[in-house]
Specification:
By secondary structure, the chain is mostly helical. Helices cover about 70% and strands about 5% of the residues. The protein has a two-stranded antiparallel sheet. Helix 1 (about 10-30) runs antiparallel to helix 2 and helix 5 (about 95-125) runs antiparallel to helix 6 (about 135-170). The longest helix has about 35 residues, at about 135-170. It starts with a strand and ends with a strand.
Length: about 190
Amino acid sequence: MEQTDVRVWDPFVRIFHWSLVLTFTVAWLSGEELEVLHAWTGYAVFGLVLLRVVWGVIGTRHARFSDFVYPPAAVKAFLGDTLQLRARRYLGHNPAGGAMIILMLLCLVLVSVTGVAVYGIEEGAGPLAMLAGSSAALEEVFEEMHELFASLMLLLIVIHVAGVVVESLIHRDNLVKAMVTGRKHA
């Protein structure tokens, strides 16, 4: 029996996703060694997040937050079902995937804001340039927070990728391919 594919992920969601993968990777790898590149890719990450938030309100069906943000009890139940290998298949994001998206977006905002603060303090540049000349203690606090949130983001990425693998295996769906083509089996 032949399966029918349906469009799930619109071009904006797919371009956003892979652009975020690229810009976050470059920002992470450039770190302190390539400060200007690090700053600009950090701005790009923040800009992408802002666009995704807007698209989460006005975008296509499966891109909207209303389609994939579930109450904590639904997320917990879904995770329990997943551990028992009997989780329901969702055409869009499942409850755990929706929760992960929200966590990742929030974490990226925190990484970006703390990074802009560090850039303002250290270089007297960027939107928070007025922080230049702040105390070394304040600079240290923002640097530590920036590194903490960046590390937390890496952890979320690892969990996200593991979730994609598990979901792909349980439901025999190639979710990476779906994020490239925009299509999933109906």
